[in-house]
Amino acid sequence: MLSGALARTAVRDNLLETKVSRMGGKPGVAAGPDTGASEGSSLSELVRQQLVLFGEDPERPGLAATPERVEKSWRWLLRG
């Protein structure tokens, strides 16, 4: 029988792999700084699109680097 913490970790990992596979990703492969540029570019582009949807200009001086900062923070937060 697994200990409580180990069992929770196994359940969490299983849920994450299920979510990743539903999104078309590869289970067990963590996105990190060494992932391809196209993956990073698409994440930054999504953040840019969100800014536009909020009525912001993603190219204005205060927001120009935001998509890359958001991508970097998400990758750090979701690292394995």
What does this structure look like?
There is one protein chain. The protein has about 80 residues and is mostly helical. Helices cover about 60% and strands about 0% of the residues. Helix 2 (about 35-55) crosses helix 3 (about 65-75). The radius of gyration is 16 Å and the shape is elongated.
As a percent range, the share of helical residues equals 55-70%
Q: Sheet with the most strands?
A: none
Multimeric status of the protein: single chain
Name the beta content range: under 5%
The 3D shape can be described as elongated
Low-confidence stretches: 27-38
Q: What class, by secondary structure content?
A: mainly alpha
Mean pLDDT: 75
Number of strands: 0
Order of helices and strands: HHH
Rg computed from alpha carbons, rounded to a whole number of angstroms: 16 Å
Supply the number of helical segments: 3
| N-to-C CA distance | 24 Å
